[in-house]
Amino acid sequence: MSAHGAPVPMTSAPCGPLSGRAEVPGDKSISHRALILGALAVGETRITGLLEGEDVLDTARAMRAFGAEVTDHGGGAWSVHGVGVGGFAEPGQVIDCGNSGTGVRLIMGAMATSPIAATFTGDASLNSRPMARVTDPLALFGARAVGRSGGRLPMTLVGAADPVPVRYTVPVPSAQVKSAVLLAGLNAPGRTVVIEREATRDHTERMLAGFGAEIATEDSDEGRVITLTGRPELRPQEIAVPRDPSSAAFPVCAALIVPGSDVLVPGIGLNPTRAGLFETLREMGADLTYENKREEGGEPVADLRARHSPEMRGTRVPPERAASMIDEYPILSVVAAFARGRTHMGGVKELRVKESDRIDAMAQGLRACGVRVEEGEDWFAVEGAGGLPGGAVVESRLDHRIAMSFLVAGMAAGAPVTVDDGAPVATSFPVFEPLMAALGADIRKGV
Ligand code: S3P
Question: Considering the chain, what percentage of its residues have pLDDT values greater than 90?
Fold first, then answer.
């Protein structure tokens, strides 16, 4: 649902040391996929640790609209009674995906090869984001999309009645596009092949294999070649969703910049296609360690321990790492202001089409907070001066990660930092404020 009513300004003031355990919620990417694949399996999938943020709740509502029985058992335990591959019913109402690009793009893929039509919409942020990147490959299966100019929502997608399998090279590094094509390939006869030049998060591939689909990934000169055999019968699963590394980034980075801090963030998924931020922070000299490394539900997991790190240095983040930390550049650019020297982030053009134009949002917000920043079309650089003056009101632009990044900045700034609207935080990290407060942060509603 587009939940954003009146803006909720939030202010974060400089605080004492952060300490304790930060149990962050379930992984957003995996939560969306668990609901969608559960809806496409035959029988009951049980999920624990589901992220109950607005984005994922919108996907749960959407799966109900397509005919699956989705039940909330409380405390992150959910079940999905699926309708089987090709079994989606035509929704009787418009599908509102709220703020979620992942939700809408994956759901479009999942319905594109069924003979039904659905109309999708979202909030002002989602309705301004490009959808041609998914509707172009979905057209190759035989689906037809009619939306607003520039391929934007609201949009109606008519699924292919007689789908054909597809071979598609993803033109931009995007797990959402890759996943949309794979989900469409489920109900096409024969083999659908997706090629990605740069590896992006592979949760869809891992989970499809878990549900019993025939799927293989090979590295070749062209990149990663993923081959899926269509029309499988997906078997229901028990899914324990690991905690989200993209949410863990906020307490971890807060601990690194607030003097005296020592925070443990347990049970974080460290899939290599997601762990680029932690690698970068360690290269910058962060006191960040992985404890109790283990495997849970097919994903590598560890407890992260972060301590205040006054000696961090700026770094050059290589462009080839971008996909593995694409959602973490906003918070990295805050940490970079607390390091000494320049941090250069290259190959990050995709940041321009996220929930907001994140290069512009961070550049303007950091400048307002007294930080020197430079930007180009596909790069961004922060001059670290060992701290951040703060004392500014920053626009969050319906973008949860922009809001949380500046609230973290305020914890260690010279003066409080206000975000004009903290409501978007609920899309991915509904317990951000109480969790940070329990560690010792001083975040309040209001200016
Ligand atoms: C996601 C993929 C990424 C990421 C988003 C979640 C996913 O988007 O930014 O938050 O779950 O597949 P892109 O596919 O646009 O890079």
Answer: 97
From 54, 58, 174, the mutation candidate for ligand 1 (largest count of ligand atoms within 8 A of CB) is 174
Q: What is the pLDDT of residues 186-197, one digit of tens each?
A: 999 999 999 999
Same domain membership, residue 16 and residue 37: no
Query: Which atom of ligand 1 is the closest one to the Cα of 133?
Result: 15
Q: How far is the CA of 174 from the centre of ligand 1 (A)?
A: 6
* Tokens coding 63: 């799966």
- The residue whose CB lies within 8 Å of the most ligand 1 atoms, and thus the one to mutate among 102, 198, 203, 226, is 102
Query: Residue 4: is its pLDDT beyond 60?
Result: no
* Judgement on whether residues 223 and 329 belong to the same structural domain of the protein: no
31 pLDDT band (50/70/90 cuts)? very high
Annotated catalytic residue within 202, 327, 399, 421: 327
Range of the domain at 268: 10-25+242-445
Who lines ligand 1 at CB under 6 A?
Answer: 29, 102, 174-176, 179, 201, 326-327, 350
The whole-angstrom separation of Cα 320 and Cα 302 is 24
- The pLDDT of 258-282, averaged and rounded, is 96
Residue 3 lies in a domain: no
CA of 177, closest atom in ligand 1: 14
- SS3 string, 336-356, reads HHHCEEEEEEECCHHHHHCCC
Query: Which residues of 28-131 form beta strands (DSSP E)?
Result: 42-48, 69-74, 77-83, 95-96, 117-121
322 and 190 within one domain: no
**How far is ligand 1, taken at its centre, from the CA of residue 446, in Å?**
31
Per-residue pLDDT for 206 more than 80? Answer: yes
The pairing of beta strand 262-269 with beta strand 19-21: parallel
Contacts of 394 (CB under 8 A, 6+ apart): 364, 365, 368, 369, 402, 406, 417, 418, 419, 420
Residue 227 shares a structural domain with residue 310: no
Task: Give yes or no for residue 2 having a pLDDT over 50.
Answer: no
Alpha carbon of 124 to ligand 1 centroid (Å): 18
Arithmetic mean of pLDDT over the chain = 97
Closest CA to 102 of 142, 61, 145, 58: 58
Structural domain total, the chain: 2
- Of 211, 240, 269, the one marking the end of a domain is 240
pLDDT in tens, 427-442: 999 999 999 999 999 9
In this prediction, residue 1 carries a pLDDT of: 40
Whose CA is closest to atom 11 on ligand 1? Answer: 29
